[in-house]
């Protein structure tokens, strides 16, 4: 098996790493403290092709593939997890519109996302009463003259106060998942009302809001894909999205492990560096091994996606393993830092808060296990 990255993948990885080290890493602690949305960084990243890594060049993307996207996400997340989740959702929205959109929808929105004209994209699936079970959504889209009227509530919408385009799911008729369709709603639509930003444990510079859709009119041309075909689009998008979140988890974990190694060499107790104690070495060894396993599962899922082979089960395995391992790695990193790890002075405190959500969003660990078990039992 060949683990060598090709030229394009190395270039994207290097570009993301250089940018993350130079611009994001020095800003991340302050972004976390202030909770300010990383607008200027997102615009710079669009200029580097990072808002459409796996989107075709014709639409302004880098066309570098799913593996390159995973590598870039890991680099950005290692520096600033808040910026990384904003990038992840924007890339996902761009890919979904490219895959299912009409020529006009692609031209209008994908190019705006890749160029940074849309600051971000938003993915509005979850609702207050429908999280793990999006098939239970209540938002409706009723056919009216010239288009549809959307009514309902969405919850936890990343970048909802800033996004230029929202992919919104709503019921168009019929029971179950076949009655769900997908629409593109543009920023500034008077019926689309973002609520107050959530006061989150981590990812504090990312924006997460509830959305109210109140007599929200969209023209018939805003339908994405087929009428009644929305649930399938959501599931396909989430398969790819899970590779993004697995990569984000790997990035945060790598940063926590790097910080732990450095701290263990510097910190002295009992007259020697704590790195000399086997207890510390074993924590570092476990973290390094789990991180490599997480990266390999993630890159396997990404390379299957790139080869246009089925990758749903592998993406769930990567998301499950990487997010759980990253939580353990960040937790150990705080332990290696002792009391200092529990203060804002050291980045591992932020990493532990940021990584927590990776086992929750884009499908909880329990839901990933359900997806995996279904494929095992098939
Ligand atoms: C910071 C953040 C950003 C987010 N961004 C977005 C976004 O941009 N767009 C979007 O649409 N959503 C977004 N989400 C929503 C996210 O995907 C949901 O929170 C997630 O799917 C879980 O749904 P829930 O919170 O309603 O939990 P629930 O579904 O209520 O789950 C609660 C608990 O029950 C468990 N559970 C539920 N069903 C089962 C089952 N069948 N078997 C076993 N256990 C089960 C869950 O695993 C969990 O432990 C975001 C969430 C957060 C926190």
Could you please describe the fold and organization of this structure?
Helix content is 52%, strand content 15%. With 378 residues, the protein is of the alpha+beta class. It has 3 domains: 7-120, Orthogonal Bundle (Butyryl-Coa Dehydrogenase, subunit A, domain 1), CATH 1.10.540; 122-230, Beta Barrel (Butyryl-CoA Dehydrogenase, subunit A, domain 2), CATH 2.40.110; 231-377, Butyryl-CoA Dehydrogenase, subunit A, domain 3 (Up-down Bundle), CATH 1.20.140. β2 (140-144) and β3 form a beta hairpin. The protein is globular. The relative contact order is 0.11. It binds flavin-adenine dinucleotide. Flavin-adenine dinucleotide is lined by residues 89, 123-126, 131-132, 156-158, 200, 203, 208, 357, 360-364, 366-367, 370.
What percent of residues are in strands? 5-15%
Q: Order of strands in the sheet with the most strands? A: 1-4-5-8
Shape: globular
> Could you say which structural class the secondary elements and strand pairing correspond to?
alpha+beta
Question: How many discrete structural domains?
Answer: 3
DSSP helix count?
10
According to DSSP, the number of beta strands is 10
CATH homologous superfamily heading of the largest domain? Butyryl-CoA Dehydrogenase, subunit A, domain 3
Mean pLDDT: 98
At the first level of CATH, the class of the largest domain is Mainly Alpha
What small ligands are held by the chains?
Answer: flavin-adenine dinucleotide
CATH architecture name of the largest domain: Up-down Bundle
Q: Can you write the helix and strand succession as a string?
A: HHHHHEEEEEEEEHEEHHHH
Distance between the first and last residues' Cα: 28 Å
Overall helicity: 40-55%
What is the C-alpha radius of gyration, as a whole number of Å? 21 Å
Contiguous low-pLDDT stretches (5 residues minimum) are none
Can you summarize the main beta sheet? Answer: 4 strands, mixed
């Amino acid at each position: 098996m060949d683990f060598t990255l090709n030229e394009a993948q190395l270039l994207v990885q290097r570009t993301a790493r250089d940018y993350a080290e130079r611009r994001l890493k020095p800003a991340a602690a302050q972004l976390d403290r202030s909770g300010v949305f990383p607008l200027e960084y997102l615009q710079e990243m669009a200029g580097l092709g990072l808002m459409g890594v796996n989107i075709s060049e014709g639409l302004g993307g880098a066309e570098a593939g799913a593996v390159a996207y995973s590598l870039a996400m890991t680099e950005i997340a290692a520096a600033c997890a808040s910026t990384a989740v904003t990038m992840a959702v924007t890339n996902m929205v761009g890919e979904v519109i490219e895959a299912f959109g009409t020529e006009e929808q692609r031209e209008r929105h994908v190019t705006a996302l890749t160029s940074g004209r849309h600051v971000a994209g938003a993915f509005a699936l979850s609702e207050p009463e429908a999280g793990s079970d999006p098939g239970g959504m209540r938002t409706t889209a009723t056919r009216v003259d010239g288009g549809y009227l959307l009514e309902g509530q969405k919850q936890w919408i990343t970048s909802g106060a800033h996004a230029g385009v929202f992919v919104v799911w709503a019921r168009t008729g019929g029971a179950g998942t076949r009655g769900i369709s997908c629409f593109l709603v543009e920023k500034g639509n008077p019926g689309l009302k973002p609520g107050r930003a959530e006061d989150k444990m981590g990812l504090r510079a990312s924006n997460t809001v509830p959305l109210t859709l109140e007599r929200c009119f969209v023209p018939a041309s805003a339908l994405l894909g087929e009428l009644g075909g929305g649930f399938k689009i959501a599931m396909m998008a989430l398969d790819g999205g899970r590779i993004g979140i697995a990569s984000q988890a790997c990035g945060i974990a790598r940063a926590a492990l790097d910080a732990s190694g450095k701290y263990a060499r510097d910190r002295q107790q009992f007259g020697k560096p704590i790195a000399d104690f086997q207890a510390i070495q074993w924590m570092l060894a476990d973290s390094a091994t789990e991180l490599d396993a997480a990266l390999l599962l993630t890159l396997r899922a990404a390379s299957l996606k790139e080869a246009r082979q089925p990758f749903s089960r592998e993406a769930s395995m990567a998301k499950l393993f990487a997010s759980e391992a990253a939580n353990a790695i960040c937790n150990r990193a705080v332990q290696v830092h002792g009391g200092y790890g529990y203060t804002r002075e050291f980045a591992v405190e932020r990493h532990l808060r940021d990584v927590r959500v990776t086992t929750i969003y884009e499908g909880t660990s329990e839901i990933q296990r359900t997806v995996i078990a279904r494929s095992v039992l098939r």
